[in-house]
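Team,

Forwarding the record for the chain on the shared tracking sheet. I've put the sequence and predicted structure together so nobody has to dig through attachments.
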Amino acid sequence: MPGPIDKSELDAAYAARDLRGLAFDWVPVGIVVTESRVIREVNRRFCQMFGYDREELLDQLFAFLYPSPEEFSNILHRGDKELSEGNLYWDERVMRRKDGELFWCRVRGQTFTPEDPLARAVWSFADLSAIRPYQPLTRREREIFSLLSEGRTSKEIARELDLSYRTVEVHRARLLKKFGVNNTAALFQSLGGIEGDHVVRSAP
């Protein structure tokens, strides 16, 4: 993984006015450029965040940075509408480091090809683990939790996820029991305050 910047490298970048390259490498968030979900370029912070050397990441399908292949597939076209309309897309999701550790991060994306949003795009990744510790939840539990955090009722969640009302209530009860709390507000606090309509409901 990349280490601290070499002073001669820093001086050379300023002397040559290569400040775009310097900013890309040293901006305090991870940056990744993708092509059809394949990693084409990354910056130093992205490498540090995930625990890989740059050469290990380049030309790899993004799937191996997700908790599971199912979660990678599930998010395939999430955000397509926003990106195709020229808007920025963002969400919060669980990712996997090289050592297997799962962590929450905030992801923002911009496409270069609105007609095919995932064909060519750039993404930023901010590590949230310092303020939002990861707690082991199943994919379905994360889906239901994130919808609860949007203020949805169990009936609305059942319709959204094509489940029965009773199934949603069972999952909700399991979440409360898992974290030893009696209500949804306490559950949010136990999970580090995950909230908002941009939380991915199944972990580019």
